[in-house]
């Protein structure tokens, strides 16, 4: 049988159950009378192990801690099936660019995509809570820059952005094939242009 959590772990348990939003180690330390951050981390690990085989799990997402339903029991809490709202291809591309290149401006997003990005595309991601404004780039015009949120990590089950799949993993799933084909086609076209006669328009 799992050992009973210590006093600090129990205090953390009570605090996180009552919290309206996930809390960082620093916030928990301040809430519990400026406790030592290392002791807070140890207490959280103790508590996470205590809940590992229970209906609730203590998890860390984006350096913030909260309780969530064990994945294998989540279906028991869904009284109604939520309507799946799929992101458009443009929104998916923009979200991926923000996740891999953050902080990034709209102009930088458009440069990477090669097309203009509609304002509504970013609005959808902002409303979903997956992207947030983090400030302005210190360049002429001071454009707004965007980054992902802890909710983005939580939704996709990531502990941090370090858990995003790498290029090799994406290529293995076939997700990069269209990009590779387009690149090869472009390079082939450029090569053929190098050895062709100039057109009249040139």
Give an overview in words:
This protein has 9 helices and 6 strands; from the N terminus they run H-E-H-H-E-E-H-E-H-H-E-E-H-H-H. Strands 1-3-2 form a 3-stranded antiparallel β-sheet. Residues 80-84, 175-187 and 189-202 have low confidence and may be disordered. Helices cover 47% and strands 13% of the residues. The chain folds into 2 domains: 7-70, Winged helix-like DNA-binding domain superfamily/Winged helix DNA-binding domain (Arc Repressor Mutant, subunit A), CATH 1.10.10.10; 89-172, Arc Repressor Mutant, subunit A (Orthogonal Bundle), CATH 1.10.10. With 202 residues, the chain is an alpha+beta fold. The chain has helices spanning 7-18, 25-31, 37-50, 89-101, 106-113, 119-128, 150-155, 167-172, 177-194; strands at residues 23-24, 56-61, 64-69, 104-105, 131-136, 144-148.
Question: What is the topological layout?
Answer:
Blueprint: H1 7-18, E1 23-24, H2 25-31, H3 37-50, E2 56-61, E3 64-69, H4 89-101, E4 104-105, H5 106-113, H6 119-128, E5 131-136, E6 144-148, H7 150-155, H8 167-172, H9 177-194
Antiparallel strand pairs: 1-3, 2-3, 4-6, 5-6
């Amino acid at each position: 049988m799992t050992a009973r959590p210590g006093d600090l772990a129990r205090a953390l348990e009570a605090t996180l159950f009552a919290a309206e939003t996930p809390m960082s180690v620093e916030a928990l330390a301040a809430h519990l009378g400026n406790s030592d951050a290392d002791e807070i981390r140890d207490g959280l690990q103790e508590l996470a192990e205590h809940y590992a085989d229970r209906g609730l799990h203590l998890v860390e997402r984006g350096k913030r801690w909260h309780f969530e339903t064990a994945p294998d029991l989540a279906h028991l809490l869904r009284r109604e099936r939520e309507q799946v709202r799929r992101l458009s291809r443009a929104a998916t591309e923009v979200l991926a660019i923000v996740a891999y290149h953050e902080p990034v401006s709209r102009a930088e997003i458009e440069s990477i995509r090669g097309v203009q990005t509609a304002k509504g595309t970013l609005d959808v991601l902002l409303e979903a809570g997956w992207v947030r404004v983090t400030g302005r780039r210190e360049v002429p015009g001071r454009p707004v820059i965007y980054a992902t949120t802890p909710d983005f990590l939580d939704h996709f089950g990531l502990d941090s952005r370090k858990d995003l799949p790498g290029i090799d993993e994406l290529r293995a799933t076939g997700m990069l094939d269209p990009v590779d084909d387009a690149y090869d086609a472009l390079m082939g076209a450029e090569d053929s242009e190098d050895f062709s006669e100039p057109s009249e328009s040139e």
